[in-house]
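ugh ok so i messed up the first submission bc i forgot one of the chains. this is the corrected input, ALL of the components this time, i swear. 480 residues overall. if the numbers dont match what u have on ur side tell me asap before i send this to the collaborators (the ones from the other lab, u know who)
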Amino acid sequence: MALIALEFPPVSHLIEWPDLFGTSGPFGLNKVVLLTFLAAILVLAFYLIAGRRRSLVPTGVQNLAESVVEFIQEGVILQTMGPEGLSWTPFLLTLFSFIFVSNIFGIIPFIQMPVNARMALPAFLAIVVWILFNFIGIKSQGLAGYFKSMLFPPGVPKALYILVTPIEFVSTIFVRPLSLAVRLFANLLAGHLLLVSFAVISAALFEATVVGAVLPGGLLIALTGFEVLVAVLQAFIFTILAAVYIGGAMHPEH
Amino acid sequence: MRIRTLTAVAALALLSILSPAGVATAQEEPSVGETETEIPHATEECIHLLEEGGEPDDCHDAPSPILPEPKEIIWGSISFLALFFLMSRFAYPAIKKSMEARTEKIRGDLDEAERVKTEAATVLEDYKRQLADARNESSRIIEEARQTADQLRRDLMQRAEAEVAELRQRTREDITAAQERAMADLQSRVGAMAIELAEKVVEANLDRDANMRLIDSYIAQVGSSS
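and heres the new structure output, hopefully the right one now
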């Protein structure tokens, strides 16, 4: 390490931020919390501005916002929940937009910290989705009906229920929220660590020899572009899986 | 080398100044000899650990990056729930209203376009029918006019022929009448002349040669006088 003058900080030092403004404890404010606020404010401001413009031919912000709404409705809800799932548009739109903005902070210059590279927000959102799809399932099918359709899926030979039932139970009750949260968190954390690694390598090589920094510097740029894709994709995956789980609870036969 | 170092330091300084949410805990160790250096967060934590009797290795033990921080969960949940409430209450209904208004407008315009198209097709049909009627009417009028003209021509010809025939007949009758009048006149005059001649013959009692001369001279007289 000392030979090539590379000093990688511990992982926790890249994603844990000190409390600011003299705050501390469970209501302390750090960079991640401020970015969470900023993400919520940006999303709300974006849609409020878009909603205020009511031109017949949408342009700019209105056009972008309506495109996102249409994407959520046609690309997510109608594909997974059917037309009766359209009432979930505000929730899924908020979910997608909030996750996307929280993710994209990872590549915004001088911010460069994806909120979802911390476990807090993905875990909370996954718990919200978990509560929602279980609640909707019990509400639409009844407690017994919901657990029956979950644990004993129709069309499976009865002998296989010995295997299928525990798998389905673990899968629906534990794996779903865990995978939702971990997928989002791990992707964003991995992306953040990749960017930091390549930035540190580029800086160190730039110190030693300018030419040597060309390759890692180029890769850093490419990875930054890749992180845009990851930010969109992970927001989309989280949203569409939430829609699939809620839609599945509404219509167990699908 | 010095320029590159200075550039890197300037960039780092700018980054730390412009960074909105403070400085990351990952900071370089303060170099030996620096007197007024702000102690980084990590170092603070390390000092704290050492003061509490920990080993220097404990400084590298960081909290698990997987476990969520309570403050981030609390503020994150508050942010998301507030955002969802405001989105579903204010932002989304406005966008939905705008989109629905446009959908209605487009649907209305399409219906109107369909109605106008149907109306236009009906009007076009009417016009085509009227045009066809007008063409038929004009053909009928032309045909009728032609027939009338033919009839008129025939009538005029017949009338002209009749008039000509009548004129010819009248002329012929006039000629005949004139001939008859001339003959009657001639007869009466010849009779009178015969009587007058006979009187003269009787009065003169002439021989044959004298009678003949007399007759000839009388005829010549009559011829010159007629």
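quick check: The helical segments of chain B are 2-18, 41-51, 70-204, 208-225. that seems consistent at least. The CA atoms of residues 14 and 20 of chain B lie 12 Å apart.
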